[in-house]
## 1
Amino acid sequence: MAVVLFLCASLTLTHCSDKGGDGPAPPNPCSETALAVTTTPAVNSSDKVQVEADLPVTINITAGFPAGGATLDITAKNEANNVQFFANSSSLTTSGVHNITITQTPPNSTAIVQITVTSKNCASNKWTGTFRYKRK
C-alpha cells in the first residue's frame, strides 16, 4: 500500500512540475506607436565643426509621442578618452521641437553625443541616435 501511495504522489508531483513552455508568447504590453525623432545635427553625422564650447541641439519628436509623456536623455563624451562631460535628462509632456545646448565641450576634441527618447508608460518604446562633432 505504501508503494502505491508513493507512486501516486511521485506521478502527481512530476505532472504538476511541468513548466509548459510550448504555449503562446505573452502579449506585448506596449501598444504605443513607435517614436520617430529627427535631430539637428543629424543622427549618424560627424562633419560638424564647432568653434565654441557650446553646441545647440534640436530634437524633433515627429510621431508616436506617448500620451503619458516621455523622457529625453542626452549625454556627450570625449571620443579619445571616453570621459563624459555633459548629461541632461528632461521630462517631456509634448511632442515637437525641444532645444538643448551641450556645454563645456573640451577644446581640440571629438565628442560623441547620444540622444534617447523613452516613453514613460512603455520602456520598450525607445528611440536612440548618436552623432559626432569636433571642437577646435
## 2
Amino acid sequence: MKILRIAVVLIVLIALGGGLYVYQFGGLRTKREIAAFAEKLTGCTAFDQDFREPIAGGIMNRAILGNVDGRCGVRFDTFGPQKLVCNFDIAEMPKVADAFAGQSANIGIFGGYSIHVSTSDPDPLTEFMNGPDCAVSDG
C-alpha cells in the first residue's frame, strides 16, 4: 500500500512538473507570446518583446514602434546582425495581426516548430514580410 501511494505521488509530481514546464518554457509560453504580440499589432500599440526563438532557441526581440503618419512601424530581429523593419498601412494591421497570430499553429505543445514552405501558396505573414512595406536594415 505504501509503494502504491509513493507511485501515485510520483506520477502526480511528474504530471505537474510537465504541465509547469509546458506552460512556463514550452509551446504554451511561445503561443502566449505570439498572442500578446498579435493583440498589440491589431491596434499598432507600442510594444517591445523579448522571446525565445523556437527554431534555434536563442533570445530575440520584436517591437511595435507605433503609429506614425498612418503607418505602423514594426521591427524584428533576424538571425544575423540585421533587423527586418516594416512600415505597414494602419488599415492593414488587423490582417497583419491575424497573419502573425496564425504562426502559433506551427508551435507544438512542447515547443517544437513545424515549417511549411510553399512558393505557390505562401502563408500570409510571409507575404506581408516579403512585401514592399518591409526592408532589412543594418540594425
